[in-house]
Amino acid sequence: NKATVVITDLDFNIEFVSNNMLQMTGYQPSEVVGNTPRMFQGPKTDSKISKSIRKQVNESADFEYVVTNYKKDKSLYKCHIKGYPVYDNKQNLIKYIALEKVA
Q1: How far apart are CA 35 and CA 75, in angstroms?
Q2: Mean of the pLDDT values across residues 45-57?
Q3: How far apart are CA 76 and CA 12, in angstroms?
Q4: How far apart are CA 26 and CA 97, in angstroms?
Q5: What share of the chain has pLDDT > 70, as a percent?
Q6: What angle do CA 15, 98, 46 make, to 5 degrees?
Q7: Of 30, 9, 6, 8, residue with least CA distance to 18
Q8: Which uninterrupted H or E stretch holds 70?
Q9: pLDDT at residue number 93
Q10: Cβ distance 33 to 25 under 8 Å?
Q11: How far, rounded to the nearest angstrom, does the alpha carbon of residue 55 sit from its chain's CA centroid?
């Protein structure tokens, strides 16, 4: 199973997702762009992990977690996420890129 690419701005607004988002979540890329990853969260999503990801983004750090997420049909899946900061040529943090796979 190929990784899905997700690019967000620093406020977690999704700017891009690869086409295999549909296979992983049931959402078309056009349904995801403009939202935040919170759209995949629900009662079984661990808020401690979500807060840890936010902290690491605020510190411009890489992160790696397995998160319980929800598909469009509300079924659960485990999502293995690796996130990396993206910098411009002046070393300003401008985006985050995440590689996500079903765990």
Answers
A1: 19
A2: 92
A3: 22
A4: 21
A5: 99
A6: 105
A7: 6
A8: strand 63-70
A9: 93
A10: no
A11: 14
